[in-house]
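Project standup — Tuesday

K.O.: blocked on the structure for the chain from last sprint. Re-posting the sequence here as requested.
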Amino acid sequence: MLNKKEIRSLEREFGFRLQKKLGQNFLIDDNIKDKLLNAADFKIDDIVLEIGSGLGQLTADIASSVKKVIAVEYDKKLFSILRSALKDNRNILLVHEDFLKFDLKSFLRDDEKLKIFSNLPYYVSTPIILKLFAHVRYIDCAYLTLQKEVALRLTAKPGSKEYGSLSLYAEYHCMVERLFDISRNSFYPVPKVDSTTVLMKMKEGADDRKIDKNDLFELIRAAFSTRRKTLINSLLAREYKKLSRSELSDILKKVDIPLNSRAETLCLTDFIKIYESIRKR
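H.V.: unblocked you, prediction finished:
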């Protein structure tokens, strides 16, 4: 595990500065490193995709216990450091690419699935999570270290202030477990917020349901567009499918949902009932 002094030395050697705004905050705490690796409990036949390998703080350790690591890093100078540091590791495939443009399935056989491991950059964590959900059929699970606020949103329950569309996207695709919190002081440069590590275990067949995910999530996004309004008023404000107040009232009555309900009080099953009722109209 590189310490603060060694990271600064690399900055001078390779002529760059780590940028907090790009989520370039690297782990410097050996105890947390061990905690992360123990929690992941990787097996010898696993294929691990590491998103944002950075300085390779954990990459070689992961590679020592799995079949293959696909290490994706977008920053050109960080990638040069990785290539130099990990050149002797035969089971590490280094990929210089933006993960949001990365083709997950191109590195897998039909019978293989990925395990994801990442300390996600704060500014792009939600787009990356949504990409994982879009490729859920290729993923077994994901161990993600996130801004604590994002972790709370992923695991939130109806009625809480953190509960929203991201909570429902997560419930649809996976089971999420908060594993442990990590102090901001475990990273260099020190970020402004603390982190939380979560395990996302993907649900088998999440993409095989007889549901148009795009339609369902369009409904959910519209429902949460104005949190202080009732569900009906939120959908009217977004002109959701051009449905009238009377039509929306009839739809909610058919599925036994009170007309004054707000989006944050409804569970995933409720939204699926509403979606199916609308589809049958």
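K.O.: great, moving the ticket to review. Residues 68 and 188 are 27 Å apart (CA to CA). The chain has a mean pLDDT of 93.
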